[in-house]
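From the methods appendix. Each design record in this collection lists the tokenized structure first, followed by the designed amino acid sequence. Records were kept in a plain field format so they could be parsed without special tools. The example shown here is representative of the layout used throughout.

RECORD:
FOLD TOKENS (259 positions):
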């Protein structure tokens, strides 16, 4: 792998698909920026929270976020992140995804991405290097899509409430209390949540708290600490929601991360 390779090199390379390896320490914040090419942003370790105009996507190991070209986004790092990014030019293939989404990264796709970071930026067409890059696009197209999106509303009143909850996920929150703050009835606020976010207030709160917990788990906090910090009454309640959304228990997730 070329140690001098940069994001700009990958954006401007003569080949349609390129890849980059980069390492980022816990707590780093990558300021809002954009790339000409679409990106598949994957992490081998740690957790990334990728934020754009449509909300935030939480990306733990075994997952990747697809970011279309030309879209502003910022990245927060939790735990030491080994980021592996694939850059895809618009003409690399027809029918590339047009919106941000999180996909499951199989062990096969993971190894292909890692291999791609060692392929020269000026690889020759028709050879093994190009086939690896095309295989990555095949696997992206076939990968399961995952809902790890922190949905955010457009209504400014609701946005203020959601921002405050995200800033302090352990705070005691009720629909009635929030409704009083913006001078509407609880029923009106419930309808507003459904209209803006496509789910009930309770469902949004549980999902958001759980997704916000992933960076804390990545930083080394215990399951008990994380559960209480994110508004869960007990580790068992937290573990049940964790398993429902991610398919594994918090303990199994942490073990996967260590592996």
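DESIGN:
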């Amino acid at each position: 792998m070329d140690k001098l390779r940069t994001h700009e090199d990958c954006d401007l390379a003569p080949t349609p698909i390129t890849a980059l390896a980069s390492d980022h320490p816990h707590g780093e914040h990558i300021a809002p920026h954009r790339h000409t090419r679409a990106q598949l942003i994957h992490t081998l370790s740690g957790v990334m929270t990728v934020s754009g105009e449509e909300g935030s996507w939480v990306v733990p190991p075994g997952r990747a976020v697809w970011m279309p070209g030309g879209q502003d986004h910022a990245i927060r790092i939790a735990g030491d992140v080994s980021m592996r990014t694939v850059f895809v030019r618009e003409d690399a293939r027809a029918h590339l995804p047009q919106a941000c989404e999180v996909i499951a990264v199989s062990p096969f796709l993971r190894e292909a991405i890692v291999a791609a970071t060692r392929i020269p930026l000026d690889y020759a067409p028709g050879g093994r290097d190009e086939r690896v890059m095309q295989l990555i696009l095949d696997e992206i197209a076939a990968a399961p899509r995952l809902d790890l999106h922190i949905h955010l509303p457009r209504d400014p009143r609701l946005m203020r409430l959601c921002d405050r909850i995200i800033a302090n996920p352990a705070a005691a929150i009720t629909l009635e209390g929030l409704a009083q703050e913006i001078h509407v009835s609880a029923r009106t606020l419930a309808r507003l949540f459904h209209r803006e976010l496509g789910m009930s207030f309770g469902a949004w709160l549980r999902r958001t708290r759980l997704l916000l917990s992933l960076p804390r788990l990545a930083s080394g906090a215990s399951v008990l600490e994380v559960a209480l910090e994110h508004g869960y009454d007990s580790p068992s309640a937290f573990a049940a929601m964790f398993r429902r959304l991610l398919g594994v228990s918090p303990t199994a997730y942490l073990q996967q991360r260590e592996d």
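APPENDIX NOTE: The longest strand covers residues 17-24.
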